[in-house]
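Q: What residues go here?
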C-alpha cells in the first residue's frame, strides 16, 4: 500500500538564524534574531504538540481515557563540541491521573509513534522523563 501524504508544511527562510521565516499559508511569520534560539523553540513546540497527539493515540489503542490532558515540556539544546554543532533534547511529560507504570508505558509507546521522535531516533540524544 502506498503512503498518503497528510500534510506538507511549507516555509521560506531568508537570512538563516538572523533572518526570518514565513509559512506559505501565512500562519507562521517570525523574525529570527540572535541570540534568541527561535529555531530550537520552534522545533520543541512542534515536537511536543506531535508527542501529545502520539500519547492520545497510544492511550486510545489501549482504551485508556485521560482524566486530565497530558502536557509536555520540551527542552532542545544546541550544543557545540569543538567545531561541531548538534542538538539534544528532553521531553518532560506529565500524565496526571494515570498510574505511574501505565503512564510510562504510554510515554514509551508515544515515543515510538511520534514522527518527530522517529526522525530524531539514533540521530540525537533524547530523554523522555515522566514527571
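A:
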Amino acid at each position: 500500500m502506498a503512503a498518503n501524504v497528510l500534510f506538507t508544511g511549507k516555509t521560506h527562510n531568508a537570512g538563516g538564524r538572523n533572518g526570518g521565516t514565513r509559512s506559505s499559508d501565512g500562519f507562521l511569520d517570525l523574525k529570527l534574531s540572535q541570540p534568541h534560539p527561535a529555531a530550537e523553540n520552534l522545533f520543541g513546540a512542534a515536537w511536543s504538540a506531535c508527542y501529545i497527539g502520539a500519547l492520545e493515540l497510544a492511550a486510545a489503542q489501549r482504551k485508556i481515557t485521560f482524566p486530565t490532558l497530558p502536557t509536555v515540556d520540551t527542552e532542545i539544546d544546541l550544543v557545540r563540541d569543538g567545531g561541531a554543532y548538534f542538538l539534544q533534547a528532553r521531553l518532560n511529560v506529565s500524565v496526571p491521573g494515570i498510574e505511574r507504570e501505565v503512564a510510562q508505558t504510554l510515554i514509551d509507546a508515544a515515543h515510538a509513534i511520534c514522527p518527530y521522535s522517529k526522525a530524531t531516533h539514533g540521530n540525537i540524544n533524547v530523554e523522555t522523563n515522566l514527571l
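A: Context that may help when evaluating the design: Residues 38-61 form the longest helix (24 residues). The domain at 1-36 is CATH 2.20.25.10 (N-terminal domain of TfIIb).
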